[in-house]
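Build the 3D complex.
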Amino acid sequence: MISSLRHFLSKSQNGTSVISRELTGDIAGHILPIATAVMTFLAALFTAAALGVGSSAEKWSENFTGGLTIQLGPLLNEETDYLSRVLEMTRITPGIEHATVTSEKKIDELLSPWLGDLVNFDDLPKPRFIEVITEPGARLDPSTLEQRLQKVSPDIKVDDHAKWAKRISEYANAISNISLIAALLVCFLSFGAIGTVAGARIAIHADSILLLRQLGGSDHLISTIVAKACFKHTIIGASLGTGAALGTIMFAEHASAGLKGLIPIPEFNTWHMLIIASLPLPTGGIAVTVSRLAALIWLRRI
Amino acid sequence: MPARNPAVASSNIVAQLKAVTFSYRNTPNVLENVSLTIPGGEFRYLVGPSGAGKSSLLRLLFMDTYPTDGSVLLFGSDVQKTNAKERATIRQKIGIVFQDFRLLNNLSLADNVALPRLISGENLQVAREEALELIRWVGLDHRINSAPQTLSGGERQRIAIARAVINRPKLLIGDEPTGSVDDAMGDRLLTLFEYLNRIGTTIILATHSKSLIDRFPHPVITLEDGRLIED
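Done.
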């Protein structure tokens, strides 16, 4: 496809550009940009989902790995010693690098999006948490730690972040793969749509194309002329579709800014945006390849 | 040295029909056992009543169709044994003036005339300059910026002729090329054809005009009911 596009672009300044004007100004000239814009818009969104969700999941996974959360039931005033004992037991456990008690303020911040502003947090019986960072490569078994701590209080739970990270990562990868498949399906549909429109255009201009052949045009040259006529409309449509998709992505990023940390939100870096912005190029390549192929098949049939 | 296609051979004979029979699908034969040899540099008229097979014979000569039986040789090559690329090369040596002109309405007059040059790979600027020269010669310089569809039948005919000769073809085929123009313009066009013939172009013109043949006498091929009556 790339060599076809390169060859095609190298011939853009000669007479074929002039002749390709004959094959425009028809209904296909209206349908092709619209169909391509819709297809590219969908492909761009699916590609964005595949890239953004994958990247976000990776980030979440990195943040979670190497961490544990120890959850204790709500404390009464006289039980602060019990919290200190658990913290001390945790800190001296081999393989643990760092352990800190989550402040009440932070717990309130975490709960506020779920409970709203109408609740007085001071009145609520809130669980307490100890955030633990393990040493890199440490062989720490969270269930053994949990069993030891439960000797202090049976309701203590040790939550292994790696399990969450794995689940989120699997879920995000599934979404990412489905998005990629959807993007490929849209590409496949684009082949069909562009091929159909190119076929319609060839049928509309059959007399002109036959004349080119009678005047000595080779099948190769005529298919280049047909491809040029399709390329222009496809690039216009693909640029519009990609522009609309980039706008949608930026709007979605802006709208989700307040949800960061609560749920995994697709994150896009410059490379992701560049990949999405370059979608008109492969779309143009598809247009050149498919329309040229449609023209060659038609010319060989007659 | 690259291997040569045995179907492509050099010859002084520009066009040759060998026992050609031709019919459209499920219809009686339009041409019946026609054999004809046209050496290079000839100027011949093709005459016959309507339905005699003149247009079909011309279509065979510019490879718009192929014989049902027999063979057509152009510039020494059996057209049915050549590949698509070779056929395109042969077509570039042929200029055609269609009865229905076949101009492209989305192109300017200059680009219509320049079309065979552009197809041959000529530079756009050079091809357009040559086209403008020919448009002036056929007397349509005042219509240079007009769209093809706004021209009269005679004017279109002149543009079609300019397009047919721009590539300095070795064989010029015309299907009633002067049918839509007045006698004065017809004479002017025939003068151009005779000039092209003098410099080596083989000319085959289908015509109904006896007066044209009288004014510009050349050998005549006569067809009747698909058979060659006189060559």
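The mean pLDDT of chain A is 84.
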